[in-house]
Amino acid sequence: MIKLVQLKPETATTLWLTFSDGSTAHWSAADLIARDTVMTRPLVDPAYFARAFIEGGALAWPNGFELSAPSLHRRLDEAGALLRSAA
After folding, report:
1. From CA 4, how far away is CA 37, in angstroms rounded?
2. For 26, left (φ over 0), alpha (ψ -120 to 50), or beta?
3. Whole-angstrom distance between the N-terminal and C-terminal Cα of the chain?
4. Per-residue CA distances from 25 to 10, 48, 57, 80 (Å)
5. CA angle in degrees (0–180, nearest 5) for 15-72-42
6. Which residues pair with 15 in a beta bridge?
7. Closest to 23 in 3D by CA, of 55, 87, 14
8. Using CB atoms within 10 A of its CB, is residue 72 exposed (0-12), middle (13-18) or buried (19+)?
9. What are the 10-residue block averages of pLDDT along the chain, 87 residues in total?
10. What is the spatial distance between Cα 20 and Cα 30, in angstroms, rounded to a whole number?
11. CB distance 43 to 50 below 8 Å
12. What pLDDT score was predicted for residue 85?
């Protein structure tokens, strides 16, 4: 199962993600933040967005909002955004 193993905040709405299969990607939360739900509203604040962390292999924030690594990986792969290291 794919897990998130490292993340690094880049901008007010983007993270650099590294997955357990060695693939990496820039991920933008802009579309997610634009939904303006109770759980995504705090992510508008760049300082809060930067508090992202990994919990059980998933992307998470202190308010309990989580995104599963397999889902993120699949969406990034479908968008052609995953970078895979050469074997």
Report:
1. 24
2. beta
3. 20
4. 11, 21, 16, 10
5. 55
6. 9, 27
7. 87
8. buried
9. 97 97 97 95 97 98 98 96 82
10. 24
11. no
12. 77
The alpha carbon of residue 82 and the mean position of all alpha carbons in its chain are separated, in whole angstroms, by 12
Q: 10 Å Cβ neighbour count for 78?
A: 9
Which helix (H) or strand (E) covers residue 4, if one does? strand 4-9
Token pair recorded at residue 17: 């993600």
Tokens of 45: 């604040």
DSSP H/E element including 32:
helix 30-34
As a whole number of angstroms, the distance between CA 38 and CA 78 comes to 28
Q: In the structure encoding, which two tokens stand for residue 21, read together?
A: 């299969």
The amino acid at 34 = A
User: Phi and psi of 59, rounded to 5°?
Assistant: -85, 130
